């Protein structure tokens, strides 16, 4: 990469979409190591690496994710383990038809819908020599993909390969400084109210707060109840043996994620994901 390209890229953000909690036999430390590898490669290409769920300001996490998925000039998406949140966020990015690089480990199979898109592959065991090659390949791919998207008016990541479509856009509008501050305060108020509700519930139940991967008994119990409600309502006629399949598990998780009662006890989708993985296997065994 030339010095001119380095200067041009250094202020641009490359969004990262990837698992962060245990899935498919890989724990949180594994994904932390993967994130460090991706960050090193992305920064080597002159970009700033940033999880799409992260922002400097306080706000609603779903709003932040959608905004970053739409605005980041390029996104790297790790579909290893086929995490439901990752696959959903990848779908949104592809709907925007903006530069996207898909990666996966060598143990994860291709998904039917995204298999036509080139995937960069890395070893799940993160062995050194192969990771060095992967980082170089990703670095080159980042620079080449963004350059092509800027220079080629017919560039498409996904949609235009299948016909003529109207690409999804986020509506933007100009607001006064006062209106912007009021809107941000409303978001902050909603976040604080949710945190206060969680604290109150746990105080009343004499339960410790949730830290990392150790949810309290009450929170685990609520997740179990949510799973049972979904199974009884949507999958009652499905044999128990079928519920162990990754596809059914993913469908049940999306239903659980929309359970409003559960959000009184949990801080966000990532927390629900961790607890869901902890209890689901035992529940359907």
Number of domains: 2
Helical residue percent? 40-55%
Overall geometry: globular
For the termini, the CA-CA separation is 52 Å
- Indicate the CATH class of the largest domain: Alpha Beta
Cα radius of gyration in angstroms: 21 Å
Q: How is the quaternary structure best described?
A: single chain
Query: pLDDT below 50 for ≥5 consecutive residues: which ranges?
Result: 202-215
Task: Going across the biggest sheet, name each strand in turn.
Answer: 2-1-3-4-5
The major β-sheet equals:
5 strands, parallel
Q: What CATH architecture of the largest domain do you see? A: 3-Layer(aba) Sandwich
Average pLDDT metric: 78
Counted by DSSP, the helix tally is: 9
- Give the CATH topology of the largest domain: Rossmann fold
Characterization of the model:
This protein has 285 residues and is α/β, with parallel strands linked by helices. The protein folds into 2 domains: 3-161, Rossmann fold (3-Layer(aba) Sandwich); 177-284, no CATH class. The protein is built from 9 helices and 5 strands; from the N terminus they run αβαβαβαββααααα. It has helices at residues 3-9, 28-44, 61-71, 84-96, 128-151, 177-204, 217-234, 246-257, 269-284; strands spanning 13-17, 48-51, 74-78, 100-105, 119-122. The protein has a 5-stranded parallel beta sheet with strand order 2-1-3-4-5, with helices on both faces. α2 crosses α5, α7 (217-234) crosses α8 (246-257) and α7 packs across α9. The protein is globular, with a radius of gyration of 21 Å.
